[in-house]
Automatic annotation (TrEMBL):
Record keywords: Chromosome, DNA-binding, Nucleus, Telomere
SUPFAM superfamilies (alphabetical): Nucleic acid-binding proteins
Chief place of localization: nucleus
Name by which UniProt lists this protein: CST complex subunit STN1
Molecular functions per Gene Ontology: telomeric DNA binding
Cited PANTHER family: CST COMPLEX SUBUNIT STN1 (PTHR13989:SF33), REPLICATION PROTEIN A-RELATED (PTHR13989)
Entry GO CC: chromosome, telomeric region; nucleus
Organism taxonomic ancestry: Eukaryota, Viridiplantae, Streptophyta, Embryophyta, Bryophyta
Localization, UniProt: Chromosome, Telomere; Nucleus
Amino acid sequence: MAMEGESSKARGSRPCREWEQDPLCFAHVRLLAFDLLALRPVPHMPGYFLRRGRSVRQVEVMGIVVTVDRKERYLRFTCNNGTLTKMISNLKYISCTSFFIPDVAPSPVHGDYLCHVVVDDGTGCVPCIFWTNYASFPATSPAKGLELRSRQEMAIATTAKVKLGDLLRVQGRLNTYTNQIQVTVASLRTEKDPNAEVLHWVECMRLAKCCYDLDPSLQKRPLVP
């Protein structure tokens, strides 16, 4: 027990310079909502979070859409992974914001071009926002302007397909907003396989046990399915 405590303490105090040597820092880490909610932000380092002493920046979550809020220029919806009814009296959730990051940061005035999503994977709720204001970003060239318009059309088409009961797979970057953890979504996909959610749970637990919970210095060979 003492050795385990010392090991955990060592992992928690690992220098920041070692984080970028950890492959977990660059991968989309598959996590259940309860695990995501337990991540600790790193002070003075936006976008960096700690899980058992290892840095996490990008995640993958999955859940079922339970609410949809459509506005003129954004879509807001909620996904349920099976625990929303259990947590309704004391709801904890993960915010997800999806937007295209241009060469120049967008003005806050464009905050209404988004799709807000909340996914529940059985262990917690994950609200998500999908920005669709690509065309409002400054274009440095005609080709860039065409790319932005194309991205906006794709984003609008994607959000238009979201409906109640859909099983969504969401990938994106972690950040915080109003002291709440969020996911800046990079991709959003509807799963047609009814077994996809259960397989996601199993894979999350397997990866946590065989990879995420381990010290990276002890991982000398790749995982074998």
